[in-house]
Amino acid sequence: MSNSTRNEEIAEIVAYIERSPLSVEEYIQQNEVPFSRAQFYRYRARYTSEGKDGLSDKRREGNHHKLNKEHLAFIRGYIKSKPKVGPTQVMNAVIEEFGITVGRSRISQILKKMDFTVQRRKEVKKEHVSCVGAKTRFI
């Protein structure tokens, strides 16, 4: 079924339900409606605001992602120019560059997908030094 045929069919069913003296729930139960009551209200709202084009199935377009290809390219370039950077610095750079708030954990997932490993700082061990007659101090 083509997308325009599907949109017309949905628009027609929505119109039938609205003109019916039955409640939405009763109409759906008594007739073979290919969607639920909740979906009816979503379709009706989109049809009212956007017309038949609003009824198009947009699942093929993919899920909504906060970061698009441009943002990911920026992150890739940023970590190449600053290889010792961590997720927090990348997150702050994205906020500064694009004004988009992305969580640190999401940045970590992206860096992992890009095969970028965060180099951890080496801990400096403090040695205990004592001298006879002197106060104890840490170096």
Give the mean pLDDT. Answer: 84
Cα-atom Rg, whole angstroms?
A: 29 Å
Strand elements, count: 2
Task: Quickly count the domains.
Answer: 2
End-to-end Cα distance, whole Å, is 76 Å
Query: H/E element string?
Result: HHHHHHEE
β content, as a range?
under 5%
Question: Taking strands numbered 1, 2, ... along the chain, how are they ordered across the largest sheet?
Answer: 1-2
The biggest beta sheet reads:
2 strands, antiparallel
Low-pLDDT sequence parts:
none
Q: Label the structural class.
A: mainly alpha
Q: Name the shape in a single word.
A: elongated
The helical percent reads 40-55%
Number of helices: 6
What does this structure look like?
The protein has 2 domains: about 5-60, no CATH class; about 70-115. Helices cover about 55% and strands about 5% of the residues. The chain contains 6 helices and 2 strands, in the order H-H-H-H-H-H-E-E. A two-stranded antiparallel ribbon has the order 1-2. The longest helix is centred in the N-terminal third of the chain and has 17 residues, at about 5-20.
Short description:
This protein has helices spanning 3-19, 24-30, 37-50, 69-81, 87-98, 104-113; strands at residues 128-129, 137-138. It has 139 residues and is an all-alpha fold.
Properties at a glance:
139 residues, mainly alpha, 2 domains, 6 helices
Write the layout of secondary structure elements.
Blueprint: H1 3-19, H2 24-30, H3 37-50, H4 69-81, H5 87-98, H6 104-113, E1 128-129, E2 137-138
Antiparallel strand pairs: 1-2
Helix pairs in contact: 4-5, 5-6
